[in-house]
Amino acid sequence: xxxxxxxxxxxxxxxxxxxxxxxxxxxxxxxxxxxxxxxxxxxxxxxxxxxxxxxxxxxxxxxxxxxxxxxxxxxxxxxxxxxxxxxxxxxxxxxxxxxxxxxxxxxxxxxxxxxxxxxxxxxxxxxxxxxxxxxxxxxxxxxxxxxxxxxxxxxxxxxxxxxxxxxxxxxxxxxxxxxxxxxxxxxxxxxxxxxxxxxxxxxxxxxxxxxxxxxxxxxxxxxxxxxxxxxxxxxxxxxxxxxxxxxxxxxxxxxxxxxxxxxxxxxxxxxxxxxxxxxxxxxxxxxxxxxxxxxxxxxxxxxxxxxxxxxxxxxxxxxxxxxx
Amino acid sequence: xxxxxxxxxxxxxxxxxxxxxxxxxxxxxxxxxxxxxxxxxxxxxxxxxxxxxxxxxxxxxxxxxxxxxxxxxxxxxxxxxxxxxxxxxxxxxxxxxxxxxxxxxxxxxxxxxxxxxxxxxx
Lengths: 324, 122
Description:
The structure holds 2 protein chains of 2 kinds. In chain A, helix 5 packs across helix 9. Chain A has 2 domains: 1-101, Phosphorylase Kinase, domain 1; 109-323, Alpha-Beta Complex (Aminoglycoside 3'-phosphotransferase, Chain: A, domain 2). Chain A has helices spanning 3-10, 12-15, 64-76, 109-114, 122-137, 152-166, 171-182, 224-232, 250-259, 267-293, 300-306, 309-323, and strands at residues 20-28, 33-39, 44-49, 84-88, 97-101, 191-193, 202-205, 209-213, 220-222. Chain A starts with a helix and ends with a helix. Chain A is 44% helix and 15% strand. Chain B is built from 5 helices and no strands. In chain B, helix 1 runs antiparallel to helix 2 (28-66), helix 2 packs across helix 3 (72-85) and helix 2 packs antiparallel against helix 4 (93-110). Chain B is elongated. At the A-B interface, helix 7, helix 11 and helix 12 of A face helix 2, helix 3, helix 4 and helix 5 of B. Chain B: This is Protein kinase. Chain B: Residues 24-114 form the DUF6285 domain. Chain B: InterPro entries: DUF6285. Chain B: One of its GO terms (molecular function) is kinase activity.
């Protein structure tokens, strides 16, 4: 029995079982490990754990304990999220981690945007996403842990800095930075922003639609339209033709947001953040090429992501032409 | 320039070897990386075929916008820096038309099936 399995067995009672079984690693980025296991009762669970010896979160990521607390806060507002069952402290046998219920569903963006299984429910998905965002944005800010704050100008500063350091000369990026700076909206009532709410990070079921919102590590305080614009950013449409995640229309997203109790957001503001989303992802693509060019990650995959920068540029161009 | 075979014929041969002989031997991450490698070779092939004409057309447009001569890298840098420092208005029709034509040409090389390309091609 592995050390991790022993440590999980020791807390099985607090998870609602007597022992754990079928422990296996699902995926592991540099920042988080994800493990699947089950209780003796058969209930499937997920462990999110910080790898031993890894550094504190960087780039605006929250700690796992904060992530767990925020998922629980979202559940209180009625948002569909996995049930958090146990939070493990840094330095314990399990390490910094939390355990949640495993939700069944689809996260592959292309199947959700164009797959056969979702034909019937697809017309409802954008409205549901609007409702869920309204629930997340209604989480009271009082009593929350200290979170990063973002604004359009702050994001532009951050990504322009990355872009300048890469040294590429891309006139469409220059145009987009200028255009977005000249039109940066004031931050109205700041809300809790999920930060990575896009097709791929939302679990859907063919019979019900949205089943669970995942990937909470970029949560912060900011403009509610940031989440809506990121969901509509063209890079996350996965062959779908519609603007909201490839599966839905703006009108339905905005209507769902209002129906969910959210303060109405003008489409223009969503399009603003959508353009900023394409610019951000484009700069990130350039950054991934840089890790190839410097030898940090010499795989051809990194290099080819650099060639996807032009996809973001063509999306930016379409938005610039639309806005004229 | 060089023929019997040309560069694109060589690429076709390599792509065919990978797809027909090498790829079926691979699985999981290696199979995925193999597809990425074939995509990279296909992009190189399109760049050999389409790149020179696209670059020549871009240089012509940049000369007209900037009123000076130079190679693509020099003129493209001048345009980028002019937009950055505010001396060139990117909303000017001539500039917008250049950005539009250039990015359509580039995505035709990089990702010809990208949905956003059809949007801009009209």
